[in-house]
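Input sequence (245 aa), recorded before submission:
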Amino acid sequence: MIDHLSFSSISKYLKCHRQWKHKYIDGWEEKTGDALLFGSAWHEMIKIEMDKELSNGSSPWVQAFNNQLEKIDAHGDWFIDLDILGQKMLSVESIQETIKSLKPMPESVEKKIELHIPGVEIPIIGYIDMIEDGTMIPIDFKTAARKWAVNRADTELQATFYIAALEQAGLIELPHTFRYIIFTKTSKPTVQILDTVRTAADIFELHEMVNDVWSAIKLEAFGKCDPGMWWCSQKWCSFYDRCKS
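Predicted structure, token format:
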């Protein structure tokens, strides 16, 4: 079967059982879309900015963006608009100031965490973008086509996973704050900072949900997807053309 779960894999199962099966059981590869390429480059750029030792002399954005292009062996000039977008976003003063103000605690950038849940035989593994020095607030960076609704952070499963793992490791106490920093790819790029709090009750609900998902996976409950949902389309599902359901 599989040797671990992750926030993204559980989210995928909750969204579409068949998508999960095709990726984690059948081993089908997902396409690298524009949004994923840009988001990966943006994350790498922030990491380079926070750790000057990673810089090779070129600008952090150029370095990070080119690294991502090499990973997918990109050809042609379709990615030029993405490069221009990154440079445009970095020219915004508020975005520059936000990145420069980041103060990660030592060894907390892309920190690997594990969550062990009773009844689930394998761990849930994830990587936190950074933990703020002094406050111990875990932070996740996002790039988005538009601003988030102010209450969206309160419903994000990712924050609950990471808070649960850090609390289980004895690094924080509940309730605790999680922070999303969202960089918007709008015509006028901006940055949005949203804090959300997780409590012991949230962690209990998470444990119940993960147990339900794991039980269904072990039973091979990979029923047909709902073609009426937005993600069941060629645009949003990498497996759409091959998925018989």
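Checked by second reader. The chain has a mean pLDDT of 92.
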